[in-house]
Amino acid sequence: MAINMDRYKGINQIMPKFLPGVPTPDPSEPGSIYPGPKPYNQCFRFTNKANNACERIVIDNWWEEIIALYGQVVTYWQNPYQTLSADGLPKGAINLEGGGPGNIYGEEPTKIFKDPKNIIIAAELNENAVILQKYGFDSDDELTAYVHISAFYNEFGWLQEPKAGDVFELTEYGDDRPYPRTGKKFEITERLDEDVARINPLAGHYVWMIKAKRYDYSFEPGLSAEGGSQQVYDDKFSGRLADGENPRSSPKSYEGDLEQLSKAIFDYSGFDYDDVYGGYGNTNNPESGPFGPGS
Fold first, then answer.
1. What span, in angstroms and rounded, lies between the C-alpha atoms of 127 and 122?
2. Model pLDDT for residues 203-253, shown as the tens digit of each residue
3. Cβ–Cβ < 8 Å for 91, 102
4. pLDDT at 201
5. Nearest Cα to 181, choosing from 217, 141, 228?
6. What does the alpha-carbon distance between residue 210 and residue 193 come to, in Å, rounded to a whole number?
7. Residue 169 — φ and ψ, nearest 5°?
C-alpha cells in the first residue's frame, strides 16, 4: 500500500519564519512546536497480522527447529477423563423432579490411560523447587515445557491438545539413571497457548506452554510407578493388591512395621473389647485382665 507522505508534513517548525527586516513572524509560516493534524496513522505496523504472515511462518519454523534441536523425548499418556462418565449423583437422586447434578465428585475411577506415545518437548526443569524451600515448603519438582502445536496434532490427531491430568515421563533424560531408577513422571497442571512475553512473538500462536508437577503415583490403570521409588511406610504392605488392573505392588524392602512394634509394647489381641486403636464404640462388657475391671 502506497503511503502519501504529504500527510505527515504538517506544521512542525519549532521556530517561526521571519522575513528580512520584519520583526513579526511570516503569517504564512507562523511556526509551531506541535505537528499538524493527520486523518489517521498510516505508518507500517509490525503487528498487523494481515501483513506479517510470512514473518510468523519463520517464527513458527524457528520454534519447531529449537524444540527438535534442544528438546527431549518423553513418553506421553493422555488422560481419557470424560465428564459424562465421572462419578456423581444421578439425575433425580435429590428429588423426584430430577434434581441433583449428574456429576459431583468429578472422579472417574474406571478410566484407563491411553497407550503412550513419544513426543519431543523443550523443558525447563526446576528440580526440588529450591526457591520454595527457603520459605519452609517441601515442594516437588516443577517443570515448564514447550510443545509445538502442529507436532502434537501430527502425533495425537487433529485438534488434540495437552490438558491437565495428562502424564508424561522424561524417558530420554532418565534412561541412564542408576538402576533401578527410571525417568521422572510429571502430571500436567496447566496448559497455555498465550503468554505474550514468552511464546507469542508478532501475536502469533506456535506452541503449547505446559506446566507440570512431579506425579504422585496413585495406582491408576494404565500407569506405573517410577522405577526405584521405594518410600518408607509403617504398615506391612503399601500399594495395590492382586487381581486389579495394574500388577500387584512390590513387597516391602525392609523388615518391621508399626503393628509389630505396638504388640511389643502391649498385645491387644487377647482382649475382645480393645485393639491398638482403642476399640472405641465397643459396648460389650470388658473382661477381667490387666486393664479390665478386676485389675
1. 15
2. 999 999 999 999 988 878 888 888 887 766 667 677 777 766 667 777 777
3. yes
4. 93
5. 228
6. 9
7. -115, 135
Distance CA 146, CA 122 (A): 5
**275 to each of 20, 261, 262, how far by Cα in Å?**
115, 14, 10
Instruction: Output the pLDDT for position 20.
Output: 75
**Amino acid present at 148:** H
In which element (H, E) is residue 265 found?
helix 258-265
Going 231 to 235 to 241 to 242, the CA torsion angle's sign is positive
**Cβ contact 232:255 at 8 Å:** no
- DSSP assigned state of 25: B
Q: How far apart are CA 276 and CA 268, in angstroms?
A: 6
CA 288 to mean position of chain CA atoms: 59
Residue among 31, 41, 48 nearest 8 (CA):
41
| Cβ neighbour number for residue 108 with a 10 Å cutoff | 18
User: Hunting for cell 433425580 — which residue is that?
Assistant: 92
- The C-alpha cell at 274 is 480393645
User: Kind and range of the H or E element at 219?
Assistant: none
Non-local (6+) Cβ contacts of 232 within 8 A are none
